[in-house]
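Journal club prep — side note

Before the paper discussion, L.F. wants everyone to see what a predicted structure for a comparable chain looks like in token form. Sequence:
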Amino acid sequence: MQRFPFVHGYKLWCAILLSIGVLFGAPSDAHEVSPTIADFTVDGTEVSFVFRLNAEAFLAGIDLDGLGDTDEAAEGGTYDDLRGLDKGSLEDRFLPFAEEWIGRVAVEAGGPVALTVTGFDAGPMGDPRLARSSELVVRGDLPAGADEMVLTWPAGAGTLILRQLGVEEPFTGYVDGGDSTPPIPLEGGGAASGWLVFAQYIPVGFEHIVPLGLDHILFVLGLFFLSTGLSTLLWQVSAFTLAHTVTLAFGALGWVQVPPSIVEPLIAASITYVALENIFLGHLTRWRPVVIFGFGLLHGLGFASVLGEFGLPEGQFFPALIGFNIGVEFGQLSVIAVAFLAVGMWFGTKPWYRSAIAIPASAIIGLVGAWWFVERVFL
């Protein structure tokens, strides 16, 4: 009987042990970085902004540009301490910081616009494992005759989603830290074209798989490790894609709404189920397509909750939705491509592939899914 080469086995198990440390070392969603959302309105010669942001991350001094998880930042410990503050204590700490920090947000409208803080609501503490969404309200006086505005978001502040309210064809756009918006007509008409919105939402969807969608990554890997060739893998992924496309669209449209407290544990359970099927059955069953389709519906609801956090631009709903979904597919295909480059050369060609690679990898995936299920339900 041909045996698995030692050097390959050594590298595989080092990777598995590293994966256990990474995946079990932190809650699956507690430290995920979310974009700041700002809604702005113009009333006469006054512009007002309402920022929905992670106040603790800003107060801790974390560089949010390109960051997926606050545990990756040197200030992660300070951030965790700040998340434990009650509403009043956080407001007392954040307000003086905000009054100084807001000067870094540059607004030009035929001249510089000085912004001042008019209010801050830390929001309820809730689950201390999860980042709360706080609201910072600021205002500024526009120069006489101003008809356009350009906002420059500070470097290190992560991604900003800027939305214009109260006008026809409002502007909605993404601004990375250190970048500026295009000129925004203050009376409306600055809505991006459908093609531009489509292109903007592709990387958003990709990012919510790689690096932010660990649960979706593990599910796709679960499909990968039962496959013995690309054809069986592709039809499984196609069934999964079709299903989550349906519920993503329905959820984003508001036609189907299921609380994350139900969806997230079920997604974790789906990961464990697929892994157990890989271990104990070892072959594709007649019900596998139905199972994959059903779990795809669940994962689509998870994607819809992500979109629900910041919404889709009015008037360009479908280009944004399609772009987001294509980004998700690119992310899934990237995961499959990396897995195939790592072990796909042994698909169906080595007698030790199932015992030495597919079963151990599926066991790790199943354990992580089971832990996340317990965490999301009981902890």
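L.F.'s comment for the group: Residues 317-343 form the longest helix (27 residues). Keep this in mind when we get to the figures.
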